[in-house]
Amino acid sequence: MRRRDIFCLLGGAAVSWPQMVRAQQVTKIARIGFLLNVHSELVAALMEGLTEAGYVEGQNTRFETRFHGAMLERVVQFANELVALKCDVIFTAGPYAVEAAMRATGTIPIVGIDLESDPVKTGWASSLGRPGGNFTGLFLDLPELGGKMVELLKEAKPTLTAVAVLWDFNVGEVQFRATEAAVRVAGATLLSLPVRQSKDFENAFERAVHERADAVAVLSSPLIFGQRAEIADLALKSRLPTISLFTLFPRSGGLMAYGPNFAMMFKRAATYIDRILKGAKAGDIPIERPSRFELVINLKTAKALNLDIPWFLQQRADEVIE
Predict the structure, then answer these.
(1) What's the pLDDT tens digit per position in 228-265?
(2) Strand 215-218 versus strand 162-168 pairing type
(3) Strands ordered across the beta sheet of 89-93
(4) How do residues 77-126 score in pLDDT, each as one tens digit?
Protein backbone atom coordinates (compact mmCIF):
# COMPACT_ATOMS: atom_id res chain seq x y z
CA MET A 1 0.00 0.00 0.00
CA ARG A 2 1.37 3.40 -0.96
CA ARG A 3 2.10 5.99 1.78
CA ARG A 4 -0.53 8.29 0.27
CA ASP A 5 -3.18 5.58 0.63
CA ILE A 6 -2.14 4.89 4.23
CA PHE A 7 -2.49 8.57 5.20
CA CYS A 8 -5.87 8.75 3.50
CA LEU A 9 -7.04 5.69 5.46
CA LEU A 10 -5.83 7.10 8.78
CA GLY A 11 -7.37 10.45 8.00
CA GLY A 12 -10.70 8.82 7.31
CA ALA A 13 -10.48 6.87 10.57
CA ALA A 14 -9.71 10.06 12.47
CA VAL A 15 -12.89 11.65 11.12
CA SER A 16 -15.14 8.67 11.69
CA TRP A 17 -13.86 7.74 15.19
CA PRO A 18 -15.53 10.66 17.08
CA GLN A 19 -18.75 9.93 15.21
CA MET A 20 -18.59 6.29 16.30
CA VAL A 21 -17.96 7.34 19.90
CA ARG A 22 -20.89 9.77 19.86
CA ALA A 23 -23.12 7.10 18.39
CA GLN A 24 -22.25 4.77 21.27
CA GLN A 25 -22.82 7.45 23.97
CA VAL A 26 -26.59 7.49 24.41
CA THR A 27 -27.60 10.28 26.80
CA LYS A 28 -30.24 9.07 29.30
CA ILE A 29 -33.36 11.19 29.49
CA ALA A 30 -34.27 11.79 33.13
CA ARG A 31 -37.93 11.02 33.80
CA ILE A 32 -39.31 13.04 36.72
CA GLY A 33 -42.80 12.37 38.05
CA PHE A 34 -44.88 15.04 39.81
CA LEU A 35 -47.90 14.28 41.98
CA LEU A 36 -49.42 17.66 42.81
CA ASN A 37 -52.57 19.33 44.03
CA VAL A 38 -53.03 22.25 41.60
CA HIS A 39 -50.86 24.30 39.29
CA SER A 40 -49.67 27.39 41.16
CA GLU A 41 -46.77 29.73 41.87
CA LEU A 42 -45.29 26.88 43.92
CA VAL A 43 -45.04 24.61 40.89
CA ALA A 44 -43.51 27.47 38.91
CA ALA A 45 -40.86 27.88 41.63
CA LEU A 46 -40.07 24.15 41.49
CA MET A 47 -39.69 24.27 37.71
CA GLU A 48 -37.49 27.34 37.98
CA GLY A 49 -35.21 25.44 40.35
CA LEU A 50 -35.02 22.48 37.98
CA THR A 51 -34.24 24.75 35.04
CA GLU A 52 -31.44 26.40 36.99
CA ALA A 53 -30.08 22.93 37.77
CA GLY A 54 -29.95 22.20 34.04
CA TYR A 55 -33.08 20.11 33.48
CA VAL A 56 -34.93 21.09 30.31
CA GLU A 57 -38.01 19.18 29.20
CA GLY A 58 -37.64 17.76 25.73
CA GLN A 59 -33.86 17.97 25.84
CA ASN A 60 -32.53 15.99 28.78
CA THR A 61 -35.68 15.57 30.86
CA ARG A 62 -39.21 14.29 30.56
CA PHE A 63 -41.79 15.55 33.04
CA GLU A 64 -44.73 13.32 33.98
CA THR A 65 -47.20 15.57 35.81
CA ARG A 66 -50.41 14.60 37.56
CA PHE A 67 -52.68 17.18 39.24
CA HIS A 68 -55.32 15.60 41.48
CA GLY A 69 -57.03 18.83 42.59
CA ALA A 70 -60.01 18.14 44.82
CA MET A 71 -60.36 14.58 43.49
CA LEU A 72 -58.54 12.80 46.30
CA GLU A 73 -59.79 9.43 45.08
CA ARG A 74 -57.47 9.83 42.08
CA VAL A 75 -54.28 10.33 44.09
CA VAL A 76 -53.62 6.59 44.41
CA GLN A 77 -54.34 6.06 40.71
CA PHE A 78 -51.93 8.81 39.70
CA ALA A 79 -49.22 7.52 42.04
CA ASN A 80 -49.48 4.07 40.47
CA GLU A 81 -49.34 5.61 36.99
CA LEU A 82 -46.05 7.39 37.80
CA VAL A 83 -44.59 4.14 39.16
CA ALA A 84 -45.69 2.25 36.03
CA LEU A 85 -43.93 4.88 33.89
CA LYS A 86 -40.70 3.95 35.73
CA CYS A 87 -39.87 7.51 36.75
CA ASP A 88 -36.33 8.06 38.02
CA VAL A 89 -37.68 10.16 40.90
CA ILE A 90 -41.15 11.22 42.03
CA PHE A 91 -41.89 14.60 43.60
CA THR A 92 -44.96 14.78 45.84
CA ALA A 93 -46.65 17.69 47.61
CA GLY A 94 -49.01 17.27 50.55
CA PRO A 95 -49.82 14.35 52.86
CA TYR A 96 -52.22 12.62 50.46
CA ALA A 97 -49.66 12.55 47.66
CA VAL A 98 -46.75 11.49 49.88
CA GLU A 99 -48.74 8.63 51.39
CA ALA A 100 -49.97 7.44 47.99
CA ALA A 101 -46.47 7.48 46.49
CA MET A 102 -44.96 5.69 49.49
CA ARG A 103 -47.57 2.95 49.18
CA ALA A 104 -47.06 2.69 45.43
CA THR A 105 -43.30 2.08 45.49
CA GLY A 106 -40.53 1.14 47.87
CA THR A 107 -37.77 1.53 45.30
CA ILE A 108 -38.28 4.68 43.22
CA PRO A 109 -36.83 7.71 45.09
CA ILE A 110 -39.50 10.08 46.45
CA VAL A 111 -39.03 13.74 47.38
CA GLY A 112 -41.92 15.17 49.41
CA ILE A 113 -43.05 18.55 50.73
CA ASP A 114 -45.63 18.57 53.50
CA LEU A 115 -46.70 21.20 56.06
CA GLU A 116 -49.07 19.03 58.06
CA SER A 117 -47.29 15.77 58.92
CA ASP A 118 -44.47 14.46 61.09
CA PRO A 119 -42.46 12.28 58.64
CA VAL A 120 -41.11 10.08 61.44
CA LYS A 121 -44.42 9.49 63.24
CA THR A 122 -46.14 8.65 59.95
CA GLY A 123 -43.49 6.02 59.26
CA TRP A 124 -42.20 7.66 56.08
CA ALA A 125 -38.74 8.23 57.58
CA SER A 126 -36.61 6.59 60.27
CA SER A 127 -35.24 9.97 61.36
CA LEU A 128 -34.88 13.51 60.04
CA GLY A 129 -31.10 13.23 59.72
CA ARG A 130 -31.15 9.90 57.91
CA PRO A 131 -34.62 9.09 56.56
CA GLY A 132 -33.66 5.68 55.16
CA GLY A 133 -35.54 3.81 52.46
CA ASN A 134 -36.52 5.70 49.32
CA PHE A 135 -37.79 8.93 50.87
CA THR A 136 -36.62 12.44 51.79
CA GLY A 137 -37.97 15.98 51.52
CA LEU A 138 -38.91 19.20 53.27
CA PHE A 139 -41.40 19.36 56.14
CA LEU A 140 -42.80 22.05 58.42
CA ASP A 141 -44.23 19.95 61.28
CA LEU A 142 -44.54 22.91 63.69
CA PRO A 143 -48.15 22.86 64.90
CA GLU A 144 -47.23 25.43 67.54
CA LEU A 145 -47.17 28.09 64.81
CA GLY A 146 -50.91 28.32 65.41
CA GLY A 147 -50.09 30.10 68.66
CA LYS A 148 -48.05 32.72 66.81
CA MET A 149 -50.94 33.25 64.41
CA VAL A 150 -53.33 33.92 67.30
CA GLU A 151 -50.81 36.30 68.86
CA LEU A 152 -50.53 38.28 65.62
CA LEU A 153 -54.31 38.43 65.23
CA LYS A 154 -54.57 39.90 68.73
CA GLU A 155 -51.92 42.50 67.90
CA ALA A 156 -53.77 43.45 64.72
CA LYS A 157 -57.12 43.56 66.54
CA PRO A 158 -56.63 44.14 70.30
CA THR A 159 -60.39 43.74 70.97
CA LEU A 160 -60.20 40.12 69.80
CA THR A 161 -62.23 37.79 72.06
CA ALA A 162 -63.46 35.02 69.73
CA VAL A 163 -61.31 33.22 67.15
CA ALA A 164 -62.64 30.88 64.48
CA VAL A 165 -60.15 28.25 63.29
CA LEU A 166 -60.57 27.00 59.73
CA TRP A 167 -58.91 23.60 59.35
CA ASP A 168 -58.91 20.50 57.17
CA PHE A 169 -60.58 17.65 59.04
CA ASN A 170 -58.79 15.08 56.87
CA VAL A 171 -55.20 16.05 57.77
CA GLY A 172 -55.14 18.97 60.19
CA GLU A 173 -56.05 17.65 63.65
CA VAL A 174 -52.57 18.06 65.15
CA GLN A 175 -52.40 21.68 63.98
CA PHE A 176 -55.92 22.35 65.19
CA ARG A 177 -55.29 20.97 68.70
CA ALA A 178 -52.16 23.12 69.10
CA THR A 179 -54.02 26.21 67.87
CA GLU A 180 -56.97 25.43 70.13
CA ALA A 181 -54.67 25.44 73.14
CA ALA A 182 -53.10 28.74 72.03
CA VAL A 183 -56.51 30.39 71.71
CA ARG A 184 -57.39 29.38 75.26
CA VAL A 185 -54.06 30.64 76.59
CA ALA A 186 -54.80 33.97 74.90
CA GLY A 187 -58.04 34.14 76.88
CA ALA A 188 -60.26 33.97 73.79
CA THR A 189 -63.09 31.62 72.91
CA LEU A 190 -62.68 29.25 69.97
CA LEU A 191 -64.99 28.27 67.15
CA SER A 192 -63.93 25.17 65.23
CA LEU A 193 -64.57 25.30 61.48
CA PRO A 194 -63.55 21.91 60.04
CA VAL A 195 -63.80 21.43 56.28
CA ARG A 196 -63.57 18.23 54.26
CA GLN A 197 -64.12 19.46 50.70
CA SER A 198 -64.29 22.70 48.74
CA LYS A 199 -68.06 23.10 49.09
CA ASP A 200 -67.69 23.40 52.89
CA PHE A 201 -65.99 26.82 52.94
CA GLU A 202 -69.07 28.96 52.39
CA ASN A 203 -70.94 27.27 55.24
CA ALA A 204 -67.88 27.64 57.47
CA PHE A 205 -67.83 31.41 57.06
CA GLU A 206 -71.59 31.63 57.54
CA ARG A 207 -71.09 29.88 60.89
CA ALA A 208 -68.26 32.23 61.80
CA VAL A 209 -70.51 35.24 61.22
CA HIS A 210 -73.47 33.66 63.02
CA GLU A 211 -71.32 32.78 66.05
CA ARG A 212 -69.85 36.31 66.11
CA ALA A 213 -66.22 35.39 65.57
CA ASP A 214 -63.83 38.37 65.57
CA ALA A 215 -61.26 36.80 63.22
CA VAL A 216 -60.31 33.57 61.47
CA ALA A 217 -57.05 31.62 61.77
CA VAL A 218 -56.61 29.60 58.57
CA LEU A 219 -54.52 26.46 59.04
CA SER A 220 -52.74 24.62 56.23
CA SER A 221 -53.61 21.76 53.90
CA PRO A 222 -53.50 21.18 50.13
CA LEU A 223 -57.28 21.72 50.02
CA ILE A 224 -57.05 25.04 51.84
CA PHE A 225 -54.12 26.22 49.72
CA GLY A 226 -56.01 25.41 46.54
CA GLN A 227 -59.02 27.43 47.75
CA ARG A 228 -57.08 30.38 49.18
CA ALA A 229 -58.60 32.95 46.79
CA GLU A 230 -62.13 31.80 47.65
CA ILE A 231 -61.30 31.89 51.36
CA ALA A 232 -59.96 35.43 51.08
CA ASP A 233 -63.08 36.51 49.20
CA LEU A 234 -65.44 34.90 51.71
CA ALA A 235 -63.54 36.49 54.59
CA LEU A 236 -63.81 39.93 53.02
CA LYS A 237 -67.53 39.51 52.35
CA SER A 238 -67.98 38.33 55.94
CA ARG A 239 -65.97 41.33 57.26
CA LEU A 240 -63.57 38.98 59.07
CA PRO A 241 -59.80 39.51 59.46
CA THR A 242 -57.78 36.40 58.61
CA ILE A 243 -54.32 35.00 59.07
CA SER A 244 -52.81 31.99 57.32
CA LEU A 245 -49.65 29.88 57.34
CA PHE A 246 -49.41 30.44 53.57
CA THR A 247 -47.41 33.56 52.75
CA LEU A 248 -49.13 33.66 49.34
CA PHE A 249 -52.50 34.08 51.09
CA PRO A 250 -52.39 37.92 51.44
CA ARG A 251 -51.59 38.21 47.73
CA SER A 252 -54.93 36.52 47.12
CA GLY A 253 -56.69 39.08 49.32
CA GLY A 254 -56.23 37.63 52.82
CA LEU A 255 -55.25 40.03 55.61
CA MET A 256 -52.09 38.42 57.02
CA ALA A 257 -49.84 35.40 56.85
CA TYR A 258 -47.08 34.03 59.01
CA GLY A 259 -45.10 31.01 57.91
CA PRO A 260 -42.26 29.72 55.78
CA ASN A 261 -41.71 30.90 52.22
CA PHE A 262 -43.46 27.96 50.60
CA ALA A 263 -42.28 28.91 47.10
CA MET A 264 -38.66 28.81 48.23
CA MET A 265 -39.26 25.38 49.77
CA PHE A 266 -40.47 24.12 46.40
CA LYS A 267 -37.49 25.64 44.63
CA ARG A 268 -35.20 24.07 47.21
CA ALA A 269 -36.79 20.68 46.45
CA ALA A 270 -35.28 20.90 42.96
CA THR A 271 -31.81 20.47 44.52
CA TYR A 272 -33.01 17.24 46.15
CA ILE A 273 -34.21 15.93 42.80
CA ASP A 274 -30.92 16.95 41.20
CA ARG A 275 -28.83 15.16 43.84
CA ILE A 276 -30.85 11.97 43.43
CA LEU A 277 -30.57 12.03 39.64
CA LYS A 278 -26.81 12.43 40.06
CA GLY A 279 -26.60 9.29 42.15
CA ALA A 280 -27.41 10.19 45.76
CA LYS A 281 -29.75 7.88 47.69
CA ALA A 282 -32.94 9.55 48.89
CA GLY A 283 -32.72 7.86 52.28
CA ASP A 284 -29.26 9.38 52.87
CA ILE A 285 -30.37 12.99 52.29
CA PRO A 286 -31.53 14.69 55.54
CA ILE A 287 -35.09 15.97 55.74
CA GLU A 288 -35.10 19.77 56.05
CA ARG A 289 -37.37 21.96 58.11
CA PRO A 290 -37.65 25.72 57.49
CA SER A 291 -35.90 27.92 60.02
CA ARG A 292 -37.09 31.31 58.76
CA PHE A 293 -40.66 32.55 58.84
CA GLU A 294 -42.14 35.59 57.14
CA LEU A 295 -44.89 38.00 58.14
CA VAL A 296 -46.93 39.39 55.24
CA ILE A 297 -49.67 42.01 55.65
CA ASN A 298 -52.16 43.23 53.07
CA LEU A 299 -53.02 46.85 53.97
CA LYS A 300 -55.51 47.08 51.11
CA THR A 301 -57.54 44.32 52.75
CA ALA A 302 -57.14 45.98 56.17
CA LYS A 303 -58.57 49.19 54.74
CA ALA A 304 -61.52 47.31 53.24
CA LEU A 305 -62.18 45.85 56.71
CA ASN A 306 -61.83 49.29 58.38
CA LEU A 307 -58.98 47.83 60.42
CA ASP A 308 -55.98 49.93 61.42
CA ILE A 309 -52.89 47.72 61.53
CA PRO A 310 -50.56 49.07 64.26
CA TRP A 311 -47.41 50.71 62.94
CA PHE A 312 -45.15 48.49 65.03
CA LEU A 313 -46.72 45.43 63.38
CA GLN A 314 -46.20 46.87 59.91
CA GLN A 315 -42.56 47.55 60.78
CA ARG A 316 -42.03 43.90 61.69
CA ALA A 317 -43.52 42.64 58.43
CA ASP A 318 -41.27 41.12 55.77
CA GLU A 319 -43.73 42.28 53.12
CA VAL A 320 -46.50 44.88 53.17
CA ILE A 321 -48.98 44.85 50.30
CA GLU A 322 -50.53 48.28 49.66
Answers:
(1) 999 999 999 999 999 999 999 999 999 999 999 999 99
(2) parallel
(3) 61-67, 30-36, 89-93, 110-114, 135-139
(4) 999 999 999 999 999 998 989 999 999 999 999 999 998 888 998 999 99
Cα 322 from Cα 303, distance rounded (Å)? 10
In angstroms, the CA 78 to CA 35 distance is: 7
pTM of the complete model: 0.83
Going from the N-terminus, what domains does the chain have, and what CATH number goes with each?
A: 30-140+262-284 (3.40.50.2300), 145-259+293-321 (3.40.50.2300)
